[in-house]
Amino acid sequence: MVTSGSRGVVYAIRDFPPGCGRLAAPINRSGEHSVNEISGLQKNLPKANVANSEKEIFPKNARKYYPQGRVSVIRDFPPFCGGNAPPLSKEERTERTSLKNKDINLVTLVSEENPLEKTKCTDGKQVIEAVRDVIAPEGSAPILSAEDIRSKPDEHASGKTKKQGAYEASSRNDMKEGMHYMFENSIKSPFGSSPNEFDSKSKKAEDKDFQTNLSDSSAFENELLENDRESQEVLSDRWIVPGLMASAQLHGKVTFNPDLAGGSSKRKRKKSFTLLQRDNTRKNSSTKWAHQGFNQVVVWDKKDTFHGDGQYTNDSFAQRSCSNDVSFPPCQTSTGHNDAMTSRNKVREALRLFQAICRMLLQEEESKLKEERKTFRRVDYLAVKIFKQKMEFVNPGKSIIGLVPGVEVGDEFQYFVELNIVGLHRPSQAGIDYVKQGERTVATSIIASGSYEDDLDNSDVLWYMGQGGNVMQKGKDPEDQKLERGNLALATSKVVKNPVRVIHGETRSSGLSEGRCKAYVYDGLYWVEEFKQEPGPHGKLVYKFKLVRIPGQPEIAWKVVRKSKVREGLCVHDISNGKEIIPICAINTRDAEKPPTFVYVPRMIYPDWCHRTPSKGCSCINGCSQSAKCSCVMKNGGDIPYNHNGAIVLPKPLVYECGPTCKCPPSCYNRVSQHGIRFQFEVFKTKSKGWGVRSLNSIPSGSFICEYAGEILEDGEAEKRTGHDEYLFDIGNNNSDSSLWDDLSTIMHDAHSSFHQVVPDSGFTIDAARVGNLGRFINHSCSPNLYAQNVLYDHDDERIPHIMLFAAENIPPLQELTYHYNYMVDQVHDENGDVKKKSCYCGSSKCTGRLY
DNA sequence: GTATTGTCAGTGTG
DNA sequence: CCACACTGACAATA
Fold first, then answer.
1. Could you give the CA distance from residue A420 to residue A746 in angstroms, rounded to a whole number?
2. pTM
3. Which nt is closest to the CA of A379, judged by C1'?
4. If I label A556, which of A357, A455, A697, A759 is the partner at 20 to 30 A Cα–Cα?
5. Contact between residue A50 and residue A571 where contact means Cβ atoms under 8 Å apart
6. What is the pLDDT of residue A768?
7. What number of CA atoms fall less than 13 Å from residue A34's CA on the CB side?
8. What average pLDDT is seen over chain A?
9. Which residues are CB-contacts of A407 (< 8 A; sequence separation ≥ 6)?
10. Taking each helix axis from N to C terminus, what angle separates A337-369 and A124-135, rounded to the nearest 10 degrees?
11. Closest residue to C2 by CA to C1' distance?
12. From the CA atom positions of chain A, what is the Rg in Å?
């Protein structure tokens, strides 16, 4: 759909040309996924829906096309929401880098034995370069490995540590059982008897008094009622509650407005979902599909409904509103859009940078796997060490109470330490973060690595188990948990009633080559409602804290996806008609329109006239990781461009995957995008941009999304198709996704990169109008979450690489996938040669307002 | 220096 | 084969 220069007329809106059929034969993939596996999923779909959609998939006479150019002024995404936060401007980046003040030598910092010349970084690009230098410095500099980076472990008293303190999320049954064991009335108010002790001038001894004698929150409830009021005043100017962004300074009760709540509070909460990963895996052995690391396979069932739509997250964010009659603390005045956007950009950029460093380090570790070691190093530690010396953390300073600027509900993180980087959770290890507030210590955030109490009608309640007690420590007997540190802070938060952030740590399906299988999701703000002491699994007393989600926040996408069993607005079960490994359904909750039909091909079609030069494959038999021997790896500059979990390490001008003439097996790590889609995608009707694409799964940064498939056209042919050229993609024009990577995209000139092989404007265009795949539905954004990557695997003609889309960041479920179309403003012409203009409605702060 | 903390990656078990 | 449990190493903080 993208064309630039003077070639063609371009439409931003996906209008579907008539005359498309579904003729292409299914493509057999030698790969892991069989059609049976797909039908396995469909078996689980309600019969009524199946039958219904069978008719609906390709309606015979029911084509309905929107007129072209039907773009409303309504913005699809609210500013700085969802995937639309733009990259930082130069000024913003410069502003936030700490290196003006620090003069840090990365290498000496991490390895004092091998000092290199000093480096100063002012942006992410330089950080990446520094990482490259460390991993494989150019010239005569000594070569350092990731191992060298690691500071030598100083004789750590080994065997001293290891302890497990925090468990959480008991079921409601556990709670009832535990009630019998509760200590009663053995409680002494931690704050003494005088309400005045909540005053900021209260005695210092109170925390100590608070210590060990408290086992139940209810017993001193009355006593503290008055204190609450006063304590709120102490803290009030620090609270930021998202629901009040639009009604800052509001005190007391807030009226609930269902229209503003994004519908979230109207949703039924029922434990009626079926999660294949949990419940069905044993029966259904074919869960290999849709697996990559983060994935859960979701099966819909007919009882529940799904109210979400494409702008779910974004709408909700924009329209956060308080609900019901919860008394909110007063909150800070809204900081304004620009600040919020800047914060959001900082968070996104920091995470991208960190994740890129991680992938580079992981690549390095993996390349050594066979040669030297059998085990990986902790790339997260290495990465954060590098990151910290070059960039400031976001939201530095004391732990924030309440909303963290730039972090939105639903944001996902791959490593624990990322929470630290963005200021969401300060401790590097502990699950409870707290901050001193005058004389008291209140909790600011917790990480719940267990699961929610997903009991009927109440999925917003979390029972969190406290920390401490020597539970898993070797050589020590478990003890009763004490009301100190995190436990004390949570108890105080209960009394003081300050919001506590909850981060939900989730272990995802694991597999050998899937890499990490854990992720953290920011769930929003909670109140600590009560706590109690009861026997834990080891028999000793533990604290349990009841946290209740503050209403009015956006619902968390993964919860929505799991809860709902039927996709509301489901109009097509599989737009690929079985040609993709994983079915792609179509959702329309806005009107009656169905996705238009077209010839679905999962991959690029090369016409006869296109004489592709035959690809000369490598002759690796035992995999292609030994770089010196593999011709494909050499073409990539000496490294496999992918991690073993399938994530692309960095964007490159051109990636050479192993192909059909290579001797390596299909499981070769240098084969990623050729295997096709790995996630459950769905096409959905957006508010104002026509159809869009989103995923039901969490997508880790660097993951392959899909190819942009279609017919290959030569320049002349492309010109003739100006009638419906909204699906043109100009090959060679996708190299400058500068808005996305900003720093990263321009740093491909290191020794490892095959930078000299820049793909020029090849004179070829992909037309997905009549023939195409999922990629044709993906919309443009000025601050996208995907980027296009040139890939070669089945031929050597660099003029016509495959256009492969990859995730630029972690993408939560249901967030729209977008990439930058790379139009050049005033360079698009219509059939008369006049300059065409099209407005962009992506809504990001980077948005120029013009698509072309 | 020490105690505390929980993750991560690998290994073992059912 | 898969899910889960367990373990050693680890780094940061109070």
1. 28
2. 0.68
3. B8
4. A357
5. no
6. 85
7. 5
8. 62
9. A347, A422, A423, A424, A522
10. 10
11. A282
12. 28
Task: Give the C-alpha separation, A450 to A453, whole Å.
Answer: 9
Q: Which two structure tokens, joined as six digits, stand for A825? A: 């403003």
Distance from residue A156 (CA) to nucleotide C10 (C1'), in Å?
9
Quick one: which residue's CA is nearest to B5's C1'? Answer: A430
Q: Determine the nucleotide nearest to A432 by Cα–C1' distance.
A: B5
| d(CA A282, C1' B14) / Å | 14
The per-residue pLDDT for range A530-575, each reduced to its tens digit, is 888 877 767 777 788 888 889 888 888 877 777 766 778 888 999 9
Q: If you measure CA to C1', which residue is closest to nucleotide C9?
A: A158
Residue A472 makes CB contacts below 8 A (sequence gap 6+) with A162, A163, A164, A165
Cβ atoms within 10 A of the Cβ of A593, count? 18
Candidates A200, A199, A313; CA nearest to A263 is A313
pLDDT (tens digit per residue) in A76-113: 333 333 333 334 444 444 444 333 333 333 333 333 33
Q: Which nucleotide is nearest to A509 (CA to C1')?
A: C3
Q: List the single protein residue with the shortest CA to C1' distance from B1.
A: A157
Nearest by Cα to A707 from A631, A783, A789, A594: A789
The dihedrals phi and psi of A429, each to the nearest 5 degrees, come to: -125, -50
Give the CB-side neighbour count of residue A80, counting CA atoms within 13 A: 19
Question: What's the CA A476/C1' B4 distance, rounded, in angstroms?
Answer: 13
- Who's near A767: CB < 8 A, 6+ residues apart? A710, A711, A712, A713, A718, A721, A725, A727, A728
CA of residue A310 to C1' of nucleotide C4, angstroms:
36
d(CA A346, CA A338): 12
A520 pLDDT higher than 60:
yes
Contact status, residue A127 vs residue A387, Cβ threshold 8 Å: yes
pLDDT at A303 over 60: no
Two structure tokens written together for A106:
């990365």
What nucleotides of chain C have any atom within 7 angstroms of a protein Cβ?
Answer: 1-4, 7-13
Structure tokens at A652: 């490159």
With tokens 């009030």, the residue in question is: A236
pLDDT surpasses 90 at A796: no
Backbone dihedral region for residue A293 (phi beyond 0: left; psi -120 to 50: alpha; all else: beta)? left
Q: Write out residues whose CB is closer than 7 A to strand C.
A: A 150-151, 153, 156, 158-159, 161-162, 277-278, 281-282, 285, 287-288, 378, 381, 384-385, 427-429, 472, 474, 509-511
CA distance A488 to A483: 5
Looking up tokens 């003729």 gives A23
Protein-contacted bases of chain B (C-beta within 7 A): 2-11
Q: Which residue is nearest nucleotide B10, judged by alpha carbon to C1' distance? A: A375
Q: What's the pLDDT score for residue A123? A: 53
Which residue in A845, A442, A771 sits closest to A607, CA to CA?
A: A771
Whether any strand B atom is under 7 angstroms from the Cβ of A378: the reply reads yes
Measured distance CA(A805)–CA(A785) in Å, rounded: 10
Which pLDDT value is given to residue A541?
A: 78
Cα distance between the two ends of chain A: 13
pLDDT band at A786 (very low <50, low <70, confident <90, very high): very high
Residue A285 CB partners (closer than 8 Å, separation 6+): none
Q: Could you check: is the Cβ of residue A157 within 7 Å of any atom of nucleic acid strand B?
A: yes
Beta bridge partners of A547: A462, A528
How many CA atoms lie less than 13 Å away from A78 in the CB half-sphere? 17
Instruction: Decide if pLDDT at A744 tops 80.
Output: no
Reference A310, options A81, A86, A85, A503; nearest CA is A81
As a whole number of angstroms, the distance between CA A213 and CA A189 comes to: 8
Task: Report CA torsion sign: A25, A31, A34, A40.
Answer: negative
User: With contact defined as beta carbons under 8 Å apart, do A734 and A790 qualify?
Assistant: yes
Name the closest residue (CA) to the C1' of nucleotide B8: A378
